[in-house]
User: What shape does this take?
Amino acid sequence: MEQTRHEVKKLMDIVNMHFDLDILTKTQKKDYVDARMVFTKILTEKGYGPSRISRILKKNHASILNYKKKISYYLMADPELQQKYEDCLEAFYRDHDPAYDMSESDLRKELISLRRKFRYQVENNNRLRAKIKSLDPIFKIVKERTSLVDDDDISKKLIRMFNGVYR
Assistant: This one.
């Protein structure tokens, strides 16, 4: 039962995100109806019946039967709706991302944490670039004084040189 509830919530979040609305909003505007039809189609494919879907969407089961009847034609006639359906379907069946289970507050905390980590990585990257830049004169000497094209040959010769066996 918990898995079912989680599955429904995940799909609802995905549809809401892709359509940029809330499918539980009581309105007959086209975007909302399209989103509810996509939601219904995916749940129907998962084996949910019209009565169960109607309880989830807080709609009459006849509305769900109507969605099921019309969605195939709408998908053929509307490439944008078809794309949204495919995006929702792909997101629903993709490997589970824990972000779907996080509250808004937890998502904010995670975002702040990721921003800190990103800043640290940028600073670290800048330090490494500075270190590499300080080695430019050495790279220039090696490049000017070696006629070898193969990096392996250059590496072997440098190792022999530093080991005192260079010939």
Q: What stands out?
A: Residues 106-162 form one domain. The CA atoms of residues 115 and 121 lie 10 Å apart.
